[in-house]
Amino acid sequence: MFGYHAYYDYSWYEFKVSQLPADSVVIYEKHTTSFFKPWSYISPVVNAFTVFDGSSKQSEQNHQIIVEYYTYHFLKDPSERQIIFEVILNCTTQERATLEKGKPVSNTKFDKVDTTDKVYQLVCN
Fold this sequence. Notes:
This protein is of the alpha+beta class. It contains two helices and six strands.
């Protein structure tokens, strides 16, 4: 039983990534360890990751380049779930607004983006 559980922990990430469209890009991986999963201390398991689907819409407003796109956050907790985020990126000022789909606009997260950010490099260059 422990063998199957360890196999599932390590194969979950590769299986989920293999189901994504070809132009999808993994932009974040969360590696975790757990007391109840002693094998994870040898090699931490990917329990969550975020994907940019490769599609974006670019426009220009007030001489600033604005890009709109979605990211998808996959979680493997006791049950699997997916959270969709709507993102607006200002390539000119390097600012990003992220909103979880279906949540109120007041929950929008604002942050500065560095030029080394994977999505910034893909959609702004």
